[in-house]
Amino acid sequence: MAVTHRPTRRDVARGAAALAAAALACPSFAQGSARVAVIGGGFGGAACARALRRLDSRLQVTLIVPGPTFVACPFSNEVIAGLRQLSEQTFTYDRIAADGVTVVAQAAVKVDAQARTIRLADGRTLAYDRLVLAPGIEIRFDALPGYDEPASAKMPHAWTAGEQTVVLRRQIEAMDDGGVVAIVVPAAPLRCPPAPYERASLIAHYLKARKPRSKILILDAKDSYSQQKLFERAWQELYPGMIERIALSQGGRVTSVNPATNEIVTDFGNYTAQVANVIPPQRAGRIAEIVGAADHTGWCPIDPVTFASKIAPNIHVIGDAAIAGGIPKSASAASAQGKACAAAIVNAFTGKPADMPRLNGACYNTVAPSYAFSLKGIYQPKEDQYAEVEATTSPVDASREVRQREAEQALDWFKAITVDTFG
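^ that's the sequence the OP posted. Answer follows.
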């Protein structure tokens, strides 16, 4: 009788390590012949493409994006609250192209990892030697009963900046004074974990000035969240009685929705809101699944030193799509990962060992004009994942002058990262 060997955890770890090592084993390339393709033009992908060219101008770098412009998520909550225009969030790839990156404004629809080719939506095929995936997140329209893509026109998620941002803004503008805005928050992982609470804060700022009898209801699939004490302190100070949050243990997990009636069903009760902002669960962008870089969780396991996929050869994954341990899914983290990944690829092409990454991340949350707070961290690989090795957060009892300075720093950070990435 044949004996079946069940792979142990050590076997799996060895296999992942071998795959990561194979992914970095590059042949010697003649000058100027190495081709790196980057799929995804957000903060991670654009930063990676630009860094590759800056580190080695001989590389042939192609940035594949779905359209000619990118709409940034950071500060998009201010658009929803009427404090910014969507045009201030929109960036082109012109300066990246000027750096020598070939920008292809076509969606990637298929990748042949063995042949190392990418098929585009217009039928063209591109070849590569190394591929970087930076696809961001995709909304899971199959995860919440009653919520599908058509439903998002009635119950916008606004979790990808652009048209959805405007839909939610217009619904809030059209809402009667005294109405309820419900925000449905999924369980982790999700893009920018504090963003739903920043959104509630800025919507409250708008309602306080324009529709003061209105309320905001947060239905949350979590019991706690990042910077919770800071948010709660701000709500007591700025919006007393306007924001109510129902946590997981209080019955806040949403189990289904009805777009026809704007009804939201939870574990312990039903709610009807005049405006329903439904943020469903997420996963890595679709191309990650097509390539085979996403595992059963919907996210992409990576080697934390090189960002090489643990399950797809000759492919790296950065940004929101990656399973990166303690690093939050944010623009700041994606940018840092993109640059570190570029350095690892250049080292691999030249036969050098990868440097140990030390990534900086910053997360600013604006709860009103001239009122913000932050969380800053330094992250390094530890036990096959990223771990936070240093962290600085705003004090809960800071003065309004400190909050105002942090609001100014938040805007400075956004200007700096967008210029660094797109400017």
